[in-house]
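In the laboratory, one determines a bound structure by crystallizing the protein with its ligand and collecting diffraction data. In a computational setting the workflow is compressed into a single prediction: the sequence and the ligand go in, and a structural description comes out. We illustrate the idea with hexanoyl-coenzyme A.
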Amino acid sequence: MAAAHPRAMPSGTKRGTNPNLGLSTMDILETLEKRREAARVGGGEKRIEAQHKRGKLTARERIGLLLDKGSFEEFDMFVEHRATEFGMEKNKIPGDGVVTGWGTVNGRTVFVFAKDFTVFGGSLSEAHAQKITKIQDMAMKARAPIVGLFDAGGARIQEGVAALGGYGDVFKRNVVASGVIPQISVIMGPCAGGDVYSPAMTDFIFMVRDTSYMFVTGPDVVKTVTNEVVTSEELGGASVHTTKSAVADGAFDNDVACLLQMRRLIDFLPANNRDGVPEWPSFDDIEREEPSLDTLIPDNPNKPYDIKELILKTVDEGDFFEIADAFAKNIVTGFGRIAGRTVGFVANQPMVLAGVLDADASRKAARFVRFCDAFEIPIVTFVDVPGFLPGTSQEYGGLIKHGAKLLFAYSQASVPLVTIITRKAFGGAYDVMASKHIGGDINYAWPTAQIAVMGAKGAVEIIFRQDAGDKDKIAARTKEYEDRFLSPFVAAERGYIDEVIKPHSTRRRIARALAMLRGKSVEMPARKHDNLPL
Ligand code: HXC
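The predicted complex, in structure-token form:
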């Protein structure tokens, strides 16, 4: 339990009396400063020291790093809880475990709340919840992003249902704000209960390696209920949530690196769903050609290459912020800029599982596409996909539903969609990856593209089964199939591909397409909402 805290009120001041009575203006100012100082030490020097020893910064230090220097305006630093159970009335700390306010990131308004682990483990009381909901409401009024820095043990146990109610109020606002303002959660310590459920309803979750954990219930409860013995790291560390559960979208080595990366991410994001993408000065010529891309595709169609090379050579100044880089690496998602304006990139990655679409890759990309669409961020899709991954593990894992998520997300997107097929676009995956048929606005292919129902080997085995024993015949049939179908031209002849472009001109072609599509407007029929295959 938190030890008695240095009182915020100057000694000798009784509650209910006017503390300014008989004081000079200088004294009054000094009183204010004393109260502020008391609030700034949170749970006290000892706990701050313990926080630092664990390699973590304090809530205020974190805010200082996230926001532009000197831009933070704090609210409610004198708020205290109103609990009276378990002796809590004698144990109050100004601020009550969360620092809230607003400031700027590279000049753009951002609202922030940071849990203070030194105060009751950052746990949420009724008053603490009201501080957060105030900031959520203000962010919505101002239509500006909100960032939550989490380092907290969930509902304040001593407050019972008042704390649960407080979480409910926060959750509801998370949902109302979804798709209106970007919401980012940064997990920077052990987080449980409501302090993982609220992040789960926001757009992005990032973690700090080795010092942050996310679980609904901690290892002790797990042991009691299931007899399982696990460490915090095994149960909910950054490696679990960035590679296995996909709860988190990325992890960084320490608080400083993480917060600096959050500033970078915010620079890519629109302030809200109406403002459109931010535009930053760019010194990268949109006419820039990349001759090396002409030889990116290996001669052997089964040899991998790194699709990130194409992304990095396409975006302004090679600046790409990857989302969920450690999960479902067979698809790459993230933000870059073209002509200074944010673009979402989705790209099959031939380096991993040949870029196949499986359940994990589908849901990762689907979520990303929906974020981009909600916030009017145009999407560029690079396609090199041999199809959906066959097998029982995929089918039992719901590949049909997960694949449908991506198909649904693209089909529903009304933002500009520019698609470039670099090599394979086989089977249903061709349709899914922002094809013309489901809403692609500009669909280009490199001359190396192969757009077909499947690769030559599989196709010949099925349609020329009668020739199976005859090697020469099979070779001839395979060649015939490759010549006719494994090219971009069958699709181009039908207008499914707008043009076959030279790889070195990819950046220029995309830039021109996006410029042309800036005014894109499509109407969907009126409805309450769609029924995305969740
Ligand atoms: C009140 C809490 C608290 C809580 C921690 N503290 N969690 N106080 N309510 N929920 C206090 C501790 O008493 C301690 O106070 C200080 O915070 C630091 O906690 P430690 O346990 O010493 O730290 P650590 O060993 O790092 O462990 C952190 C922890 C653990 C993993 C978060 O404290 C923990 O498991 N807490 C309980 C988590 C939980 O079950 N919460 C309720 C979830 S239900 P002193 O005075 O010693 O510094 C929930 C409902 C929401 O949130 C609805 C969801 C849908």
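The first strand starts at residue 73 and ends at 75. Keep in mind that any predicted model is a hypothesis to be tested, not a measurement.
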